[in-house]
Amino acid sequence: MAEHAAERTAARVAGREVLVVQDTSELALGGRRAKADGYGPVGKGGALRGLLLHAVLAVDAGSGALLGLVDAPVRNRSGGKVKSRRSRTTAQKESQRWLDGTARAGVVLAAAQSITGVSDRESDIYEHFVRRPDNMHLIVRACQNRRIETNDAEQIGQLFGHVDSLPEQGRFAVEIPAAPGRAGRKGELAVRFGRVELRRPLHGASDLPPTTTVSVVDVRETSAADGEKPIHWRLLTTYSVTSLADAQRIIGLYRMRWVAEEYFHTIKTAGFNIEQADIAEPEIMIKLVAAIAVAAVTVMQLVKARDGTTDQSLLEAFEPADQPILEAISARLEGKTARQQNPHSKGSLAFAAWVIARLGGWTGYYDKPGPKTMRR
Question: 322: which residues sit within 8 A by CB, 6+ positions away?
């Protein structure tokens, strides 16, 4: 299912600047009963059992339109003992999923004009930068206070201290959207940037080059009110950053990583309520998760297209044979008032979103159709 979805995504990206957003979500399916059924541990403490979904999504870097699924491996942890983290290679760790997702994106999206991988702190892995595909750049939020080369050959510096010492290069205003535990607000961000040479980790990476060079963009919110946790991102990127405009571009691309949060929200409480599925056999549940991983992309595309702002073709979510069916249904659903008419042009994804929303129970008058309506 994931491979078929990837084939469709590959057909949509030709000539486009594509952002690859990947992240992992834990699907909590229960406690003792789920354990007895064979589900592995998720969450902290091991009391909860379930599956892990690692989604790799393709997004248009210009419009923010969701283009499709690149990969969606689903994993059931064994729960057995593992060797010490330092004694294992990346290939022996769960963190290998980040490298696999990046490698898969380089293959699936090869027809794109450019490919940029964006991921959060869990993907801050030295090998991730070293082994990235030649046709792909990375933007990763730093997690490790890595060792770096300095001008003094006898000293080894630390990444975070070096970044803190860089001069501020400018400030700009942004809208900071609401998030769990945080209200939306206007903010001012201060920016620093530079070039750093990361040193190879001391453990589990002896076959890798001793250093690799990346740019670092440091972003700090200067306007947070008392009680609000200010934004602070240290972004590592394989792009060259030599100006404030370059840095702002990297920051803007990284902010689009939020699509992954929306995606998992759609899979869970906002759309499919996947964690409420009562399926005792893990292998069957894995197949359901894969099917929903594909369907959630279409639901998100419809929600984002409902206002006509993504300017996407209907064919980015439907087959050509679906178009006359959607047009016939639209004609049947339209009413006499202006608000009961489909306002979007035929052949657009917005046109299809209006039809699907109406079939899902939306009247055309109140609020805007969300993921639950589109899923219905």
Answer: 314, 352
* Closest alpha carbon to 95 in 56, 139, 54, 134: 54
Helices (H), 62-151: 96-108, 126-130
Give CA–CA dist 276/325, Å, rounded. 33
pLDDT, averaged per 10 consecutive residues of the chain (376 residues), comes to 95 96 97 95 90 97 94 88 64 90 97 97 96 97 93 74 94 81 82 96 85 96 82 96 96 95 96 95 97 97 93 93 98 90 96 97 91 96
How far is the C-alpha of 358 from the C-alpha of 188, rounded, in Å?
41
- What is this structure's pTM? 0.92
Measured CA to CA in angstroms, residue 226 lies from 49, 178, 281 at distances of 38, 17, 49
Question: 286 with 295: CB under 8 angstroms?
Answer: no
Pull the structure tokens for residue 149: 């080369």
What is the residue whose two structure tokens read 């589990």? 204
